[in-house]
Design brief:
single chain; three-stranded antiparallel beta sheet; Sulfite Oxidase, Chain A, domain 2; mainly beta; OxRdtase_Mopterin-bd_dom; globular; five-stranded antiparallel beta sheet; 2 helices
Length: 133
């Protein structure tokens, strides 16, 4: 909470074909979290409480494209929606925005997470309809 907080206004897209337009979030940019990190890794694995994981290329988390969000629509993020904090990667399908985030691991390889190991696409771009592998 001591890092710079930003407001995010974005659309979100679910792999089951629904979208929610104009959502409002507050959180910390992944650019702030990775500001002093030097790495040759090109991939990440997001880890959540409860054992959930999802893989995200590092380039999809940087450049103002991803946040650790703790607020939705002006209120603290509800537990059922990933509170107290979730990863927010709105340009990818929402399964990449891991609820209850507790860590981001840098990896050399693109290691499939939970849904990716069960047939979902490794990347998950909604504009390319990257739903399933």
């Amino acid at each position: 909470m001591g890092l710079p907080q930003v407001d995010i206004h974005t659309d979100i897209h679910c792999v089951t074909s629904w979208s929610k337009l104009g959502t409002s979030w507050r959180g910390v940019s992944l650019d702030s979290l990775f500001e002093n990190v030097e790495t040759s890794c090109r991939f990440t694995t997001a880890h959540s409480y409860g054992g959930y994981t999802t893989n995200v290329p590092l380039q999809d988390l940087l450049g103002g494209r991803a946040w650790v969000a703790w607020e939705f629509d002006g209120e603290p993020l509800e537990r059922t929606h990933g509170g107290p904090a979730r990863l927010l990667v709105p340009h990818l399908y929402f399964w990449k925005s891991a609820k209850w985030i507790n860590g981001i691991e840098l990896t050399q390889d693109d290691v499939p997470g939970f849904w990716e190991s069960n047939g979902y696409h490794l990347h998950g771009d909604p504009w390319r309809e990257e739903r399933y592998s």
